[in-house]
C-alpha cells in the first residue's frame, strides 16, 4: 500500500481527516443500528410466541424496533451525504491539480503523451482515485472497526464466541481479500493496459475519422475497435467469473457463521428468558454481512489504484514562477540561450543561441525536421524554460509575464476547432467580442459569406476538430481569432503543411496582408512565400546557419539559392 503515500492521495487524507472520521463513524453506527434492528425484531418475535401475560412486556423491545428502524435509514442518508460531500471536494481538488499540472507544461506533455493518454488521466485515473476513497478505504475502515466492536462485545459473554467470530470474520476480512488480490493481479493489470490502449487508439482514430472514411477503410476502423473492445470484454468476463465463484464461497462462510451462532446460542442461552435471544443473536448478524461483502472487491481494486497513482506521479511537477510583469512591445531578444528537454538532457536542442527580432519584423525560420523550430516558438511564448541564457520580449521574460496570451498569438499546423458553436470558437480570443467585430474579422479572412450561408450563422455547431471545414478554412478561422485578439506578435507554425499549393498561396497572402503591422515569426519547411518576408534564418546544429534577407541570400548564399531552386522545382 505504498501508493497511499502518493502526492495525489496522502495530502487529502490530512486535509479532510475530520470528514473521513465522521463518515466512518456514521457508517459504523449505520451497521450497528441495522444489526440491532434485526436483533430486537428477533427478540420481539420469540417473546411474542410465548404469549406474554402483558403487552407491556414487549413494549420496550417494540419501541427499540421503531427507533432502530427509523435510525438506520437516517444514519445511512447522513453517512452517504457526508462521505460524498468530502469525496466530491477531493475529486474537485484532484481535477484542479491535474489541470494546472498539465496546463503549466502543456507543450512538453503534448510531445511526450498521446491525446488519448491525457484523456485517460483526466477520466480514468482521477475516477479511480475517487473510487479509492469510496469503494476501498471507507468499507475497509468501517469493516475493521465493526469487527473490533463485535469482538469486544463477544468478550462479555464467552471466550469461545470471541474465537469463533475471530475465525469467521477474520476469514472474510483478511483471507478472501488477500486471495482475491493474488489471483486477479495479473488480469487486472492486463485489463488496465487494454483500457489505456483503447483510450489512446480510439481517440486518435475518431479524430482521424474522415481519413478512414475517405480512404474507404471504415470497416477496418470498426474492426480494430471491435478487437480492442473484445480484449477488454474478455478480461472483464474472466474477472466477473472469478468474482461470482468467490462470492459463492463467501456465502457458504456466512452460512457456517450462522450455524455457529445458532449452536453457541442454543448451548449457552437455555435458562430463564435467555432462549428468546437465540433468534435475536442469529438474525442480528445478517445485516452485518453488508459490511464485509464489498471487502474482497475493494482490495482487488487496489491494483487499478496503484497504477493510476503511478501514472499521475510520473507527471513532471515543475512549479511555475510568479507572473507579475507585463509585456508592452514586440521586440524579441534571445541571448546565449541553451535548451534541452527535462527527460532528454543529453539531447541538446539549442546551445548558446542568440537572435534578435525587431518590432514589426517579418522573419521566416527554416530547418530540417527535429531541428527545434517549433521548440523555439514555445520558448518565445514562455511555454518552455531555457536551461541557460535568457529570452526577453521588450525587456520582460515571457515566463514571468501575465499577458503573454494577449501579446503573442499562434496559428499551428492543425489549428484546433472545438465541438461548440462557431461563435464560441471565435470568442476564445476575445470573450466580449460583438457580432460586428466577429463578422469584421471573418470578412478580413474571406469567410464572412460562408458563415452567413450557414443555417444558424455564428450559432452553428461545429463538429469535433472542425471536420466540416476544409484545412484552409480552419486556418482562416484561426487567423480570424488572431485578428480579434489583436496581438503584437504572431507565430505561424507550419501553417501550410498539408495544404495544396493554391490554398497555401491564398492563405499566406491573406495572413501577410492582414498582419503587416505585426511581428511575424513564420516557421516553415519550405520556401513558398519567402519573398514577402524581411528576413530568413536557417537553424541547424543547435544554432543559426543562415541569416539574411531573402533577396540578399539568393545572391550571396549558394546553399540557400539551391534550396530555393529545389523548392520551386527548377
Automatic annotation (TrEMBL):
A GO MF label: ATP binding
Domain ABC transmembrane type-1: 21-304
Domain ABC transporter: 332-566
Organism superkingdom: Bacteria
Transmembrane regions: 21-44, 56-75, 132-153, 159-181, 247-265, 277-300
Pfam families: ABC_membrane, ABC_tran
Record-level GO BP terms: cell redox homeostasis; glutathione transmembrane transport
Keywords linked to the UniProt accession: ATP-binding, Membrane, Nucleotide-binding, Transmembrane, Transmembrane helix
GO cellular component: plasma membrane
Membrane protein topology class: Multi-pass membrane protein
Location of this chain's protein in the cell: Cell membrane
Name recorded for this polypeptide: ATP-binding cassette subfamily C protein CydC
Amino acid at each position: 500500500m505504498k501508493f497511499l503515500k502518493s502526492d495525489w492521495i496522502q495530502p487529502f487524507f490530512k486535509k479532510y481527516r475530520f470528514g473521513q472520521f465522521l463518515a466512518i463513524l456514521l457508517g459504523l453506527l449505520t451497521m450497528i443500528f441495522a444489526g440491532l434492528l434485526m436483533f430486537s425484531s428477533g427478540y420481539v418475535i420469540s417473546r411474542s410466541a410465548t404469549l406474554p401475560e402483558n403487552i407491556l412486556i414487549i413494549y420496550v423491545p417494540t419501541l427499540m424496533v421503531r427507533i432502530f428502524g427509523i435510525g438506520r435509514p437516517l444514519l445511512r442518508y447522513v453517512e452517504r451525504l457526508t462521505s460524498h460531500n468530502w469525496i466530491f471536494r477531493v475529486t474537485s481538488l484532484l481535477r484542479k491539480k491535474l489541470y494546472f499540472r498539465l496546463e503549466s507544461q502543456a507543450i512538453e506533455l503534448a510531445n511526450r503523451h498521446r491525446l488519448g493518454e491525457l484523456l485517460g488521466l483526466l477520466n480514468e485515473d482521477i475516477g479511480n482515485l475517487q473510487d479509492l476513497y469510496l469503494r476501498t478505504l471507507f468499507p475497509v475502515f468501517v469493516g475493521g472497526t465493526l469487527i473490533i466492536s463485535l469482538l469486544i462485545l463477544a468478550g462479555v459473554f464467552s471466550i469461545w464466541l470471541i474465537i469463533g467470530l475471530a475465525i469467521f470474520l477474520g476469514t472474510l476480512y483478511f483471507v478472501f481479500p488477500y486471495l482475491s488480490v493474488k489471483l486477479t493481479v495479473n488480469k487486472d493489470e492486463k485489463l488496465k493496459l487494454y483500457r489505456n490502449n483503447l483510450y489512446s487508439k480510439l481517440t486518435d482514430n475518431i479524430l482521424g475519422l474522415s481519413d478512414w472514411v475517405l480512404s474507404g477503410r471504415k470497416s477496418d476502423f470498426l474492426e480494430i475497435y471491435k478487437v480492442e473492445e473484445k480484449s477488454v470484454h474478455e478480461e472483464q468476463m474472466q474477472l466477473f467469473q472469478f468474482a461470482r465463484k468467490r462470492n459463492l464461497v463467501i456465502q457458504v462462510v456466512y452460512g457456517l457463521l450462522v450455524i455457529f451462532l445458532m449452536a453457541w446460542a442454543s448451548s449457552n442461552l437455555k435458562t430463564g428468558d435467555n432462549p428468546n435471544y437465540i433468534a435475536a443473536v442469529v438474525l442480528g448478524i445478517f445485516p452485518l454481512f453488508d459490511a464485509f461483502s464489498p471487502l474482497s472487491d475493494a482490495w482487488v481494486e487496489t491494483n487499478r489504484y496503484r497504477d493510476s497513482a503511478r501514472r499521475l506521479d510520473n507527471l513532471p511537477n515543475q512549479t511555475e514562477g510568479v507572473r507579475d510583469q507585463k509585456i508592452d512591445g514586440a521586440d524579441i531578444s534571445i541571448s546565449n540561450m541553451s535548451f534541452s528537454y527535462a527527460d532528454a538532457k543529453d539531447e541538446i536542442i539549442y546551445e548558446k543561441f542568440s537572435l534578435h527580432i525587431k518590432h514589426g519584423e517579418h522573419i521566416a525560420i527554416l530547418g530540417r525536421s527535429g531541428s527545434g523550430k517549433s521548440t523555439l516558438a514555445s520558448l518565445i511564448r514562455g511555454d518552455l524554460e531555457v536551461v541557460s541564457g535568457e529570452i526577453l520580449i521588450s525587456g520582460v521574460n515571457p515566463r514571468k509575464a501575465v499577458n503573454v496570451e494577449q501579446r503573442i498569438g499562434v496559428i499551428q499546423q492543425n489549428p484546433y476547432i472545438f465541438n461548440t458553436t462557431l461563435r464560441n470558437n471565435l470568442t476564445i480570443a476575445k470573450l466580449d467580442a460583438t457580432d460586428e467585430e466577429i463578422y469584421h474579422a471573418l470578412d478580413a479572412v474571406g469567410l464572412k459569406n460562408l458563415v452567413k450561408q450557414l443555417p444558424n450563422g455564428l450559432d452553428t455547431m461545429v463538429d469535433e476538430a472542425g471536420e466540416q471545414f476544409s484545412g484552409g478554412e480552419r486556418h482562416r478561422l484561426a487567423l480570424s481569432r488572431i485578428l480579434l485578439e489583436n496581438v503584437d506578435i504572431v507565430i505561424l507554425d507550419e501553417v501550410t503543411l498539408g495544404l495544396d499549393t493554391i490554398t497555401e498561396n491564398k492563405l499566406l497572402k491573406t495572413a501577410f496582408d492582414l498582419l503587416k503591422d505585426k511581428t511575424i515569426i513564420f516557421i516553415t519547411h519550405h520556401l513558398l512565400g519567402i519573398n514577402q518576408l524581411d528576413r530568413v534564418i536557417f537553424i541547424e546544429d543547435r544554432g543559426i546557419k543562415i541569416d539574411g534577407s531573402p533577396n540578399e541570400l539568393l545572391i550571396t548564399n549558394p546553399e540557400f539559392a539551391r534550396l530555393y531552386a529545389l523548392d520551386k522545382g527548377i
